[in-house]
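in:
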């Protein structure tokens, strides 16, 4: 695990190459809700940096609550992905600096360390058939070996739909019943706020319902 972490840091420091692309941005969201689960109450800033070279990409993403009282939900992740055609595979290292174990160098397994490693595969149908299928499995430091399945659809008008399910008995997804449980049913809409000619900022809104927890959320966000 330490070698994986150091490898990702090394990749982020590679000098620019001709075919290499970098992206830096940030989102401001009214509340941090992830896969139907509220991880931080109140507004959060979510910076992201990534680079790509051919079909390979890697980066880092974080979420920091603007209220000190919600800092327990702070998160800083590293990820690496490879795409081939309509499919992609991704490895994500989840780290929570505000959690009970915030030692970034603690890669212990069996629910003891500060990191959880997730492996995921995704399918994207493209513009002609905008169906998305996403499957993720926690493969390290999760005693429940949590599984998540998501199906999404996005229209040309900016409206999107999502249905996400978790396998029962998972503390990670806050479910404790056998079989698949619906935890992330939602609809979203994105539009561009134009400030002047040639410059705009995407504004998004999401209505999210978690049938398993019997909770609903309305989240808005700005992307910079």
């Amino acid at each position: 695990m330490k070698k994986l972490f150091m490898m990702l840091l090394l990749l982020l420091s590679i000098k620019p190459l001709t075919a290499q692309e970098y992206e830096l941005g940030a989102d401001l969201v009214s509340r941090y809700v992830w896969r139907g689960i509220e991880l931080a109450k109140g507004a959060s800033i979510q910076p992201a940096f990534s680079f790509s070279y051919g079909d390979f990409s890697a980066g880092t993403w974080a979420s920091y609550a603007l209220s000190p009282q919600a800092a327990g939900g702070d998160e800083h992740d590293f990820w690496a992905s490879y795409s081939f055609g309509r499919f992609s595979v991704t490895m994500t290292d989840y780290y929570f600096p505000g959690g009970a174990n915030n030692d970034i160098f603690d890669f212990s397994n069996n629910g003891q360390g500060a990191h959880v490693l997730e492996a995921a595969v995704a399918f994207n149908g493209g513009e002609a058939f905008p169906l998305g299928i996403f499957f993720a499995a926690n493969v390290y430091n999760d005693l429940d070996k949590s599984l998540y399945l998501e199906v999404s659809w996005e229209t040309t008008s900016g409206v999107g739909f999502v249905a996400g399910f978790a396998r029962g008995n998972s503390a990670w997804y806050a479910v404790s019943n056998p079989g698949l449980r619906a935890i992330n049913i939602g609809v979203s809409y994105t539009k561009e706020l134009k400030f002047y000619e040639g410059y705009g900022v995407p504004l998004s809104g999401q209505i999210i319902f978690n049938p398993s927890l019997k909770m609903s959320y309305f989240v808005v966000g700005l992307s910079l």
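note: The two ends are 32 Å apart (CA to CA).
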